[in-house]
Design a protein that fits this description.
alpha/beta; Rossmann fold; 11-stranded mixed beta sheet; AB_hydrolase_fold; Alpha/beta hydrolase; DUF900_hydrolase
Length: about 375
């Protein structure tokens, strides 16, 4: 179940990384909207236009209704407030959608496509471009994601086209905090994503190149889905503001237990394309130590394990004097195939330095472009 709690206190302690001998039972925390002092968001600080149209295509596993019209035989409608499929098979309806438009309230329309139709559509509209699939975090309404991607795409240029993956999550209201039990809601969301990939994206091996960007809790959903989509390969993967334990890729954590959860870092690494048995691209980990949402998340559930989106990977707590870097902490299979980027060094001013939703800021757009070529 989702539990609503009014935010009464935003200051989170900077926790030391204390790891148990097995994978901790994590509780997901996601602050739904960036608040003025604790990190301005370029996405959510500006109003979303009414009757928003999205000129590209999306992937969604939100339940939908078939509403054909004359000249639009594959027209569908869906609601941004749909929390996910029930037990009626709705979850297998992972589809590509074009011509997405808000038609009032939180209702959207679009035209569904098969994977073959999506490839033809993408190729015709974006000849020579590479898709950048984007997995948003919890408590993101479709209009927030689509509006943000619209703005970001204008800055990305024509070589890399963002395709948002809109998966079912509950809407939120400003000023609310959801405590999401990973033993209940997150596995369900991961199953949604695995089905979305499995039913749709795994057929996109037709795309010669593709990259993946995950933000916030989207990283956790990827973590839980990665083992189920191992035949899907990306050129590069960006983990931005990741609400994952910082040592997920560490050799010690991976080998300390036979718990399947301890192997999930390897599952993520193995989503990279390989040549001669080695990954071709990299996993790029973008972090900000002052991230207010991840600082709060660190202490939820009593685990006190710092987040990857705070500390990066291949790092350790020196206890006195901050954090140090040691690539040898990483599992040998992962070592040298990750790269940290300290976004915190680029966030300035009271309204930015604690930011969590910085994924589409100008310096981040430039960073993606520099790595994608």
């Amino acid at each position: 179940m989702f539990f609503k709690n009014c935010i009464e206190e935003f200051t989170a302690p900077k926790a030391k990384a204390v790891d148990s001998t097995v994978e901790e039972v994590e509780t997901v925390t996601q602050l739904p909207r960036e608040l003025p002092f604790f990190g301005a968001s370029i996405d959510r600080a500006t109003p979303v236009p009414q009757n928003l149209s999205f000129p590209g295509m999306i992937v969604t596993s939100i339940d939908y209704d078939e509403r054909p019209q004359t000249g639009r035989p594959k027209r569908i409608t869906f609601s941004g407030s749909t929390p996910g499929g029930s037990g009626d098979g709705a979850r297998i309806k992972a589809i590509f959608v074009k011509n997405v438009k808000n038609i009032g309230g939180d209702t959207y329309e679009g035209d569904q496509m098969s994977a073959d139709e999506a490839l033809a559509y993408f190729t015709e509209k974006h000849a020579g471009a590479t898709p950048l699939f984007f997995i948003h975090g919890y408590n993101n309404e479709p209009q927030d994601t689509l509006h943000a991607v619209n703005k970001a795409q204008a800055k990305m240029g024509v070589n890399h086209v963002i395709i948002p993956i809109i998966w079912p999550c509950h809407n939120s209201l400003a000023g609310e905090l959801y405590h999401l039990d990973r033993g209940d809601n997150a596995p369900e969301a991961a199953e949604e994503l695995a089905l979305a990939f499995g039913a749709t994206l795994q057929t996109t091996s037709k795309f010669a190149k593709k990259n993946l960007l995950c933000h916030s809790m989207g990283n956790y959903i990827l973590r839980k889905a990665a083992g189920k989509i191992q035949n899907l390969k990306f050129d590069n993967i960006f983990l931005v503001a990741a609400d994952l334990r910082h040592n997920l890729f560490d050799e010690d954590f991976i080998n300390r237990s036979s718990n399947p959860a301890n192997k999930e870092g390897l599952h993520i690494l193995r989503l990279l394309k390989q040549k001669n048995g080695q990954p071709v691209g990299k996993i790029y980990v973008v972090h900000n130590w002052e991230d207010y949402a991840l600082g709060f998340s660190t202490g939820i559930g009593g685990n006190w394990v710092n987040r990857m989106g705070q500390a990066g990977v291949g790092t350790y707590d020196k206890w006195f004097g901050g954090w140090g870097d040691n690539v040898n902490l990483l599992h040998p299979e992962i070592r040298h195939h990750t790269e940290n980027f300290n976004a915190g060094a680029r966030l300035n001013g009271v309204s930015d330095y604690k930011s969590h939703s910085y994924q589409w800021m100008d310096f981040m757009i430039n960073y993606y472009k520099s790595k994608l070529g």
